[in-house]
Amino acid sequence: MSTLLDRMTKAHSLHGQEARAGLRDIAPAAIAAVPIGLLFGAVAVGKGLSVAEIGLMSALVFAGGAQFAAIESWVHPAPILALAFSALLINVRHVLMGASLAPKVALTFREKLLAFFFMTDESWALSERRSMNRPITGAYWATMVVVLFFNWTVSTVLGAVLGSFLGAPERFGADFAFTALFIGLVAGFGRSRVTVVTVAVSAAVSALVHYFIGAPWHVASGALAGIGAAYLAAREG
Amino acid sequence: MNVDPVTFLAIIAMALVTYATRIAGLFVADRLVLTGRAKAAFDAIPPAVLVAVIAPTALTTGWAEAIATAITIIAAFRLPLLATIIVGVASVVLLRMVI
Question: Where exactly are the structural domains of chain B?
């Protein structure tokens, strides 16, 4: 009896330790995401989406990059195929991330089907780092992703509510905030020769297609041109 | 709490595609190793998409946006993300008043 109780107490405290580690690791990323989420909601409202639509998108898509890209070139009625295709392009990196992380997570295949719905750049990167020393437990993963999920849905909806009171985002230059955010994210990929070629070709093709053909086709054509340029600019081997 | 039916379908499509990318790795784990040009092309996807999204706003909207873009690029290599956004937004607001 006492051994069973001991085991249960031990398992419980291990569970708590893992959850606390998850909370500690994810806190900085969660805090940094709040202003970004507020901004997303405010600009999305400015583009004509309702608060409910913004909340739905944050909860179901739960991918900042794809959501920013969708809102930046949002038109009415929504071009379903173009939006799905640009979401695929932005999120296809998840395939490699998931393939790398999957064997390091101590969950069953079915549990992973649910757990990986919540995979983001942040939770993936933190788990990869932690997995160098120990396996990723369900408690660690769940704590991180639940915090990020509520953080993102609440901050984007809050931004949407605030944005609908503030009015036209151009007045505060908020329409340029995405551009600045994306420039900051692109800078994070460095200044290697291949990256510079990619960025230059993507920018030129996107701007030309937008000018001569129009939204939303500039996203796919610019991106594919940039990816092709990277293929040609890189060395074989 | 209004949800436009076309917007709803677009959100569902984006959600399904995104979920598919998140679980696809579970089925190919340990079998997906890219090298050389294929890896370079795959690694180029995020910056290529990000740039393609903003290029029209950044380059062809007007002088205020184009100059603010140049300022933001300089800031992006020196400052954290949030500070970069603040510099970009502040410069576009100032430039729009001047130009």
Answer: 5-98
